[in-house]
Amino acid sequence: MRVVYVLLAVSILFSCSNGTELTVLNTTPQKDIRVEGMTGRRLRSYDMGDLDNASNEERAFDISKLDDLMSADKIRNALKNIDDQEALFKTWHVDEATSKAVLARLMEKDKRIANMPILAKYNDFRTRHAFNTIMDSWLDTKTLDEISTALKAFKTDPMTIQFRAWYKDGITPTQFTSALNKITNPDKRKSYGALESHYKEFVKMKDKEAAATIKKAAEEMN
């Protein structure tokens, strides 16, 4: 009987021991599951934050304003008149959110081909502002590009106004050429050759006018 009791006791202890080991083993996966679940919740929370940020960016621009900013009349006038074009593009380029919204509307599949003329001009406008090069305190490529764009539309006023300002400040054709030579892109530099020639002629004309005025004043004094 003692043998039976001993065997029975050993059996019970063995069973309890196995049970304890199983409990520990079962606990570990449960902990892993809880950690994984928490990690998953953290990831989901992070993803929701990303969505919130994206939504905030979308909300940064009021889509309802597009209809007014991009009205057919405004675009039509912009294609006809350089002043209207510059004015319109400035409202489109007021900030990154507005510009992206405008481009997205222009690039819609059913409108892309029809919008190509205005899209090309707006991209030129954006390029002028994004890649502006400052050659001197009084000269940058943005200014030159705006003058060149106006000349293509047979508008000489921007060029004349700028030339007068340079002449008044004593900017010589040689200084203008030296500033232009700071442009490292040869094609870009070449594109301003016409303006370089125009300014030389402008200065010659102004010098002649000044000389004639001085001569006339001297004759009147005599």
Automatic annotation (TrEMBL):
The RxLR-dEER motif acts to carry the protein into the host cell cytoplasm through binding to cell surface phosphatidylinositol-3-phosphate. This is RxLR effector protein. Belongs to the RxLR effector family. Residues 1-19 form the signal peptide. It comes from Phytophthora palmivora. Pfam families: RXLR. It comes from the Eukaryota. Effector that suppresses plant defense responses during pathogen infection. GO terms for cellular component: extracellular region. Keywords: Secreted, Signal. The lineage of its organism: Eukaryota, Sar, Stramenopiles, Oomycota, Peronosporomycetes. Transmembrane segments: none annotated. It is found in: Secreted.
